[in-house]
Amino acid sequence: xxxxxxxxxxxxGALLVWVLPWRSQVQAGGFALLVALGExxxxxxxxxxFDYGASGLRHTTTAVWFEDLGVSYKVGLYDWSLWLVGLTxxxxxxxxxxxxxxxxxxxxxxxxxxxxxxxxxxxxxxxQDLLLFYVFYEAMLIPLYVLIGIxxxxxxxxxxxxxxxxxxAGSLLMLVAIVALGLQEGTFDxxxxxxxxxxxxxxxxxxxxxxxxxxxxxxxxxxxxxxQAPPEVAAVLSGVISKTAAYGFxxxxxxxxxxPVSDMRVTILVLASIGLVYGSLLxxxxxxFRGVVAYSSLAQMCLVVIGLFAVNDSGLSGAxxxxxxxxxxxxxxxxxxxxxxxxTTTGELALLGGMARGRPVLATLLITTGVIALAVPGxxxxxxxxxxxxxxFTVGWGWAVVGAIAIVLAAMYMxxxxxxxxxxxxxxxxxxxxxxxxxxxxxxxxxxxxxxxxLSFWPAGVTDHSFGGSPASSVSTRFEGP
Amino acid sequence: xxxxTPTIDWAGFSPYLVLLAGASVILLLxxxxxxxxRNAVSATLSxxxxxxxxxxxxxxFAIDERSRDLVAALSQxxxxxxxxxxxxxxxxxxxxxxxxxxxxxxxxxxxxxxLLSAVAGMAFFVAANNLxxxxxxxxxxxxxxxxxxxxxxxxxxxxxxxxxxxxxxxxGSAILLFGSALVYGATGEIGFSAIAAxxxxxxxxxxxxxxxxxxxxxxxxASAAPFHQWTPDVYEGAPTPVTxxxxxxxxxxxxxxxxxxLTTAFPTESELWTIxxxxxxxxxxxxxxxxxxxxxxxxxxxxxxxxxxAGFLLMPVAAGNALGGRALLYYLIPYAALSIGSFAVVxxxxxxxxxxxxxxxxxxxGWERPVHGAAMATFMIGFIGLxxxxxxxxxxxxxxxxxxxxxxxxxxxxxxxxxxxxxxxLGIVRAMYMxxxxxxxxxAGGSPPRDVALxxxxxxxxxxxxxxxxxxxxxxxxxxxxxxxxxxxx
Lengths: 482, 490
What we know:
Helix content of chain B: over 70%
Strand order of the largest sheet of chain B: 1-2
Distance between the termini of chain A: 23 Å
Oligomer: heterodimer
Number of domains of chain B: 1
Radius of gyration of chain B: 22 Å
Mean pLDDT of chain B: 92
Helix content of chain A: over 70%
Number of helices of chain A: 19
Structural class of chain A: mainly alpha
Order of helices and strands of chain B: HHEEHHHHHHHHHHHHHHHHH
């Protein structure tokens, strides 16, 4: 039942935010924050009592949805999907708190949508039925569309429509693939479905996930959406939503299609490598802070995919750790970008500079996060990237070389962005009286950074508590468990 | 002297009788009720009549396993029962939408009588079992609709719409009648199953030409491309409650009858008509979706959306298998609710602003009228085929039927045009929530009068649209029972 609660607590919360007659915007926001924190507590309870020893599905709920085509409401959590759910509920709680702090207008609509988005995203990570997965996958889209379209920046209109049409075009092909796969197998239950050798069906899934992640060359929607979204929604987009795509590869595309995966592996690795280098180079050339984070996000997701398509213990563990680590890093960076923008009204690096002077908290948090993002040895990102490179090295050393080059590039773009914002001459947009981070902002960002530091000290906290200890075999047995 | 009286199955005829009795009573009563009270009395009576007819159809659905032997011309089976339930439900919602439609008081009695007559005609049409009753049913509901479109005689747009519909619709009916004559000429039969029995020895050229002309006639009524040209003009000009009713009910009637007619009368030509319908579906999807992209008037936009949905609805029929039959009957329920609901919101805005509703005049609606806005947004999301509305599962079912037939090309076409449709459906959401209202369109004289009936229709449509998503299991069982007696070629 725990997975069901994790999905529906925020959804019911959303309905309450919309329906109940809240007397003020703050009340509605406060209630939403309470729900989000309750959700986080629920997850902590689940994680504390989770049996990490064995692989296999836990906290399962099954109910018939419609029997005619063998579709059921089946949800549950694996030890590794638990971490992604944790990432979701944690980041969502922080972003909702950020929304309360900045006092988003039209609070009831806003916080209801944020909660709905939380429920849908948890649903994606918990669904064990293909159609149910698709329902939650699509259910994420509408709140995101509205959140960017109403509360976004001046170019939001074009950004949203591009985002939605890109994503839907991919997911409609996935729907065709789901129909084909489900009817072929006679069931839509992921845990009872066999493997398929159909390249077309695999591509239906793979393209949808490649658009959502996004991977090169399907990233056309990314820069606009990440720039125009409100900072906390951009944090969710790059921190959490992009992980649903990687999850889709890991849960559905890779284990269900062993032959197409091995046929298409080189193609996908080539695309991911191009994306990795391309994203890193573009991140280096971006004129604004969010652009840097956006393209670095593209690069990092490509690295995740490289790790996944290594399909060995090291690569899969690394990819999972990178998902969690990058989720926290990019959420923190987008929130920090939001904090900077609130003080200077701009994210243009040319107009920023010298913000470290007299603002020690901002500088410390930004540098800590940035240093973790560029995978300095000892950080969680370093551990993850090391595992990914180690995994892909056994597939072919060439891929590992590309990955290593990209890590150098990461240091370049991240240090450039940090020094452009914090150091150098004081920029024209930086006012002397622009304050350091307020206690409320600190209390939002410190937990994220603290978790990152914790993972840096103990990456095994995730890697040793995933896949029942043996990633490759649990993927090859489709997570059935020994 | 004993007179031989025919035994009449009164129970089987009850839906028609209730509807016709209601229509006649309203028409007569309108003469005696003062003009002031005419609208309220007629609306109440028509609501009761529809509820009675619906109850009769539901009872028949529940007790009948087989088709009732009413007369050879009608097969009152569960397919007819279910279609009648949906049409009557659409009528009931339309009565609620119509209740406060600004129009001359003295016409209101005629309006509701015609609405009931149209529902009765559709109820008759979906049960048609031979070419004569098919044509009679078609003309019966069409003539009622011609008048309904033009009923506001002081609006030239309505008159234009009525005349256009009359001319084009009669043309469609004429082709259908000509086709019937050819089929009769080829087989010497008018009963659907008798045609199937004689088809093998019939003149194939006559038979196929007749079939094609019949499909053209039905395509006119379903507003499937390329027989859709009347749709945008008529939908735009007709009074909005009538448009909503036409969009929902006519489509239900036309598609259910198409399914019954093709599977019963032409199993031998199944290869031919499934391919033809696949092509018509593709044309409707392409034309409807692409033309909708450039519309500014919301009623026209929804008209093109209705054309594109004719394409989606034809996909499961084209699949020609039992899964497709279930898919079609399930699809019709959320589709009807979404159509009436969305036109109801348009009607509300139209009454508020007293001018045609364009995308610009929807600006800010979502914040000004939260319930209407949220409902309209849900309807648009539903039309795209996203959860949590039944239309998502309907599209899923339609795709499944096509997959079972092996027509992946048509699935992909459906998916591509669904992606195209996102642009204009979300355009409405964008107008409602993401654009500042233009002062010029702000209503003069404060907030509009409360319209409980209209709100009830909108909320009712919303409940059906979302409820079909969660209650899909039992509805699919109902749909399965409904198509149980049909034999599918694939």
